[in-house]
Q: What sequence folds into this?
């Protein structure tokens, strides 16, 4: 097997989110990777004019930890205003994350595998992602609902299903258990 040139976008699996890494900031307890959209996306959705960037916004996404160190993607999203029709829009970010999500798709995948395959606690997953317990918990529950309930083709192509039961929350009245069912086809 040969070697390719070192490539942080590929190594950190940012490439598969349609992003490339353009900068890194290594702090003692976390790494921040500045990312931008790879595909040019400057054509007006409404009239097809080539648009000029109006401004940019940055969006932090918790990514999978690399070397036990939380990794945050700082994704730059360009916003446009069409000179032809005045339509205002932003670069598509759905390959990187669900709308309004705090976790990247890789970060979310890491969290699910951590819970179901590695039997990590939600506290450990949150620590790995560098986010609050509630943030990790909400993201995992939302993804479970999305994958299992909202997708009508959810069992197409599924060869392995993992079932796991967790103590989800310790309350004064006892422990609440939740059953997690996840398609492990890709994991195997
Ligand atoms: Zn337009």
A:
């Amino acid at each position: 097997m040969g070697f390719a040139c070192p490539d942080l976008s590929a190594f950190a699996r940012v490439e598969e989110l349609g992003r490339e890494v353009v900068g890194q900031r290594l702090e003692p307890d976390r790494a921040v990777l500045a990312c931008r959209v790879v595909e040019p996306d400057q054509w007006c959705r409404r009239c097809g004019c080539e648009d000029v960037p109006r401004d940019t916004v940055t969006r932090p996404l918790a990514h999978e930890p690399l070397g036990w160190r939380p990794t945050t993607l700082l994704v730059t999203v360009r916003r446009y205003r069409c000179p032809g029709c005045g339509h205002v829009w932003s670069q598509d970010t759905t390959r990187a994350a669900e709308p309004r999500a705090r976790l990247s798709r890789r970060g979310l995948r890491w969290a699910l595998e951590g819970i179901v395959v590695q039997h990590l606690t939600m506290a450990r997953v949150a620590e790995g992602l560098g986010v609050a317990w509630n943030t990790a918990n909400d993201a995992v529950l939302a993804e479970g609902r999305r994958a299992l309930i909202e997708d009508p083709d959810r069992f197409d192509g599924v060869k392995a299903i993992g079932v796991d039961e967790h103590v989800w929350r310790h309350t004064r009245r006892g422990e609440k258990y939740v059953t997690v069912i996840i398609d492990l086809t890709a994991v195997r």
User: Anything to note?
Assistant: The chain has a mean pLDDT of 82. The chain is about 20% helix and 35% strand.
